Amino acid sequence: MQPSSSSTLGSIASVLPTLEAAANNTTGIGQDGQVSSGQLDSWDLSCRYIIGTFLSLIILTAITGNILVCLAIYTDRRLRKLGNLFLVSLAVADLFVSSLVMTFAVVNDLMGYWAFGPQFCDIWIAFDVMCSTASILNLCAISMDRFLHIKDPLGYGRWMTKRAVLGTICAIWMLSALMSFLPISLGWHRPYPDSLLLVNGLTMCALDLTPEYAVTSSLISFYMPCVVMVALYTRLYLYARKHVQNIRAVTKPMNHKDMSPTKFRSMGQSSLHVMDHKAAITLGIIVGVFLCCWVPFFCANIVAAFCKTCISEDCFKFLTWLGYLNSALNPIIYSIFNTEFRDAFRRVITAHACCKALAERARAPSDLSYRTKRSTICETPRANSVANSAGCRSNNNTAERISLRAEVDTRVEISVKSVGEISAI
Asked: Which residues have CB under 8 Å from 407's CB, separation 6+?
């Protein structure tokens, strides 16, 4: 049975004085929550402060980044694409990880014991498994969406319909809930009947799994999606390389008296090489960060299920937080590296600053009307944009007089648009 929010808040409030006392002058906390006698080593106290600050920054970064992703897609019409619904689902999963899982994990790790009761221990572990699984499965769905978009851009609309996208997202969350809440609520995941462990007089809420559940959940939650992701991104990169080679083969020199065919091919190959190199770096970052964050944890998760003493508690905590770190890095990798998302983030932030400045000026005495104030604060960038557009139109009149090198680079970039889209993953 899930505890009420008031009882949970009461448990948190009751444990805060104990945590403060433990941080100031104690070495341990008993099972009944009473602080034991002793003097906490200053080095240990400093380490706790540093670790707590660092983990809090990770949580804050994850929450802020994923909220920005949701706001950007909601407020920017250019980002309201079917494929970006997977990014919204990923951001929601990572937001749950950072707000519901990581917050209690940092308190549990710093205090050294579980203070929120046995029932909430099972709920917390279930949310941990469900949200982490949903995050990984959403990453797999994003890789499939990107692959179909690049591989078959003309047939992409036939495959990725609104019903297909929403059905895939619902299936991801249903499978994640099925892998977490059902076995954990029935106690199938742990080798002992009680929710909490008693270690050195302290109650511990640990992810101690049976070998059967550890192998099954790891296969469905990570290893199978990981194989699919690596295979799709590898094929995506190979397809991009092949596409670049085909373009290089059919590209012919322009009829220009000042440009030799050899120089033309050299310039075209240079531009294609840059696009190819950028696509390789982008795909390498996506796959590399995902593997670095999750492979160590899921390997240790299976090893710990068969050998309880092979992996130390501190090592397992570190690997767990390494996996949590992926929830903070996902908004950066899948959004900030994208030009459209960067522009949307900038508009969201500047719109907030604009409204704040407008409110402050409205409170100040002035002869200007509200409409004048709004145009002064918020429409000045629009006027600048119009002026810039006029300048661009003026520059376009001289487009025929630009160098042939710029013409060649533009033609090559347009012709390899499908390859360049990889860089906006």
From this structure: 254
DSSP state of 101: I
The pLDDT tens digits of the residues spanning 128-155 come to 999 999 999 999 999 999 888 888 888 8
Q: Chain centroid to CA 287: how far?
A: 13
pLDDT digit string (tens) for 166-185? 999 999 999 999 999 989 88
pLDDT at residue 80 tops 80? yes
What contacts 129, CB < 8 A, 6 or more positions away? 176, 179, 180, 184, 217, 221
Helix (H) / strand (E) containing 198: strand 197-199
**Domain 38-352 classification at class level:** mainly alpha
Of residues 165, 163, 159, 102, the one with CA closest to residue 138 = 165
Kindly indicate the confidence band of residue 223, based on its pLDDT and cuts at 50, 70 and 90: very high
CA distance linking residue 236 with residue 148, whole number of Å: 9
Give the CA distances from residue 264 to residues 60, 184, 230, 246, in Å, rounded to whole numbers and listed in that order. Answer: 50, 64, 36, 16
CB 132 within 8 A of CB 330: no
Backbone angles phi, psi at 88, to 5 degrees: -65, -45
pLDDT at 9 over 70: no
Q: Which residues pair with 96 in a beta bridge?
A: none
> What is the C-alpha separation between 328 and 352, in angstroms, rounded?
23
Task: Give the whole-angstrom CA distance, residue 170 versus residue 95.
Answer: 17
CA atoms of 26 and 36, how far apart (whole Å): 6
Which of 199, 204, 30 shows the shortest CA–CA distance to 114? 204
DSSP 209-230: --HHHHHHHHIIIIIHHHHHHH
At a CB cut-off of 8 Å and minimum separation 6, what does 12 contact?
107, 115, 116
Give the least confident one: 141-145, 207-211, 356-360.
356-360
How much is the average pLDDT of 10-28? 44
pLDDT of residue 241: 77
- Please say whether the beta carbons of 418 and 151 come within 8 A: no
Check whether 355 has a pLDDT greater than 60: yes
Using the CB atoms, write b or e for 243-275: b if 16+ within 10 Å.
bbeebbeebeeeeeeebeeeebeebbeebbeeb
Return the domain boundaries, the chain. 38-352
The one-letter amino acid at 324 = Y
Q: Is pLDDT at 13 greater than 60 in this prediction?
A: no
